[in-house]
Specification:
The chain is an alpha/beta fold and 291 residues long. It folds into two domains: 5-38 and 195-283, Zn peptidases (Aminopeptidase, 3-Layer(aba) Sandwich); 40-188, Alpha-Beta Plaits (2-Layer Sandwich). Helices cover 34% and strands 23% of the residues. It is built from nine helices and twelve strands. The chain has helices at 62-75, 84-93, 99-110, 116-122, 126-132, 168-179, 202-215, 232-237, 266-283, and strands spanning 13-15, 21-24, 27-37, 39-48, 52-53, 135-143, 149-150, 153-162, 185-188, 221-226, 242-244, 249-251. Strand 2 and strand 3 (27-37) form a beta hairpin. The radius of gyration is 22 Å and the shape is elongated.
Length: 291
């Protein structure tokens, strides 16, 4: 994409990385088309000192100081925000909800100005929380060399998922402010690209809808912001409208991506192959595709 852009002469990118279908207790809820994604950025929080022996505890214990910093990060909430895609998503899924949840979704869908009370109620759901703001969470810890020695170095890895318009430098500054301890060094692990939104194209959504209906009748197709990351980031940055559309299904209460127990059923695999074949036929106007 960077060195040979002439080799990619495309008006549209379909990225099948990931599953588009959402399940709850075996029921198919909807089929999402990713039009934008959160960026990711990883930081280390590091405390160093001279250490010592466990028989003589010190007030400047590296592990204790790092633990206090992580508790402050865990307690902090980044501001709620929405974008064109999430507002459409909230509007569309409101139809399947009831009561307060339906009302809250409609409030967030109605305006770019966020209703804080509605967002806070919806954010109690883990999956919904990920769509409402930037998040940071500790994922790895390293400290100590043996059980009777005070650690001279303690390091935590904190991964953040950034709303599309949020710079990584701004998140680092926020982490430093939240940690509020000069003994805890906050540093990025690399440079992290981000990309804007691909317009939720009604024609494309209709084409996907026809394919979805041919395999899973009655399942609605909705635009979606992916809270993870995919290669759509790079094609969007190259100026090509890019959409994440995969024929697999995820149980939203049992997400196992990147874990050692990640899995896909045999039936799900073949369904995804068939979906991709049908989608390519639909997008090419029904012209035959060599299998």
């Amino acid at each position: 994409m960077k060195h040979h852009p002439h080799a990619v002469d495309a008006g549209l990118v379909i990225n099948p990385d990931g599953n588009s279908g959402e399940l709850v207790k075996g029921k198919r809820l909807d089929f999402t088309v990713e039009t934008v994604q959160k960026a990711y950025a990883t930081y280390t929080l590091t405390v160093t000192n001279k250490g010592g022996h466990s028989s003589e505890p010190r007030p400047d214990n590296a592990i204790d100081e790092l633990a206090q910093a992580l508790l402050r990060v865990a307690a902090y909430r980044f501001p709620y925000e929405t974008n064109a895609t999430t507002r459409l998503y909230f509007r569309d899924i409101a139809a399947r909800e009831h009561g307060q949840t339906r009302a809250d979704l409609r409030r967030l869908a109605a305006s770019p100005t966020v209703d804080e009370a509605a967002a806070a109620r919806l954010a109690k759901d883990v999956a919904m929380n990920a769509l409402l703001h930037t998040t940071c969470v500790a994922t790895m810890l390293r400290a100590g060399v043996q059980e009777n020695a005070l650690s001279s170095r303690a390091v935590a890895t904190v991964q953040c998922r950034l709303m599309p318009d949020t710079p990584a430098a701004a998140v680092q500054a926020t982490l430093e402010r939240v940690v509020a301890d000069p003994k805890v060094a906050v540093a990025p692990l690399g440079d992290y690209p981000r990309a804007g939104e691909s317009p939720p194209d009604p024609r494309l959504l209709a084409q996907v809808g026809r394919v979805v209906d041919s395999m899973w009748p009655g399942v609605p197709v909705v635009p979606f912001m992916f809270a993870g990351a995919s290669d759509s980031l790079y094609t969007r940055n190259a100026g090509i409208p890019s959409y994440g559309i995969g024929g697999g299904w995820n149980d939203i209460d049992d997400i196992r991506m990147h874990g050692r127990n990640e899995r896909m059923s045999q039936q799900g695999f073949y369904q995804e192959v068939e979906f991709t074949y049908r989608l390519m036929k639909e997008l090419t106007g029904g012209r035959p595709i060599d299998r």
